[in-house]
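Data availability (excerpt). The following record was deposited with the supplementary files.
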Amino acid sequence: AAPAPEVSRGARKAAPPPAADVARTRGRPRVAEESCKVPTCDRPVRSKGFCAAHYQTWRRGRLDRFVSPDGVLRFDDSQLAVGSKLAGEMASVARDGDEVVIEVGGKTIRKRADGRSPRRRGGQDEA
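Predicted structure:
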């Protein structure tokens, strides 16, 4: 039997060449061809459902009608804290007298125009 070839410690095997039918690209592969969740934008998704431009605007907390990463909803020169669990969700906002009605993430949130929660119908404050 022929002696085994001598291999120095720490030597690595060379990686096999890539298959001819596999395209080599840089960066993260796209999961799906979706468009940005901002209604007027049709650019491809980068992260959290936003294109690159809208993702940066959202991340900095400046994208109106979307809950920012810190849980603040900005709209019409106003802002209301709605909770960080709703971050990235689009909200619809309507005014009802002195209250603001926000629908976001399948939930309806009522806030007074000054940002506080409304009083209950019986005149008792919420606990």
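Summary of structural features: The longest helix spans residues 52-59.
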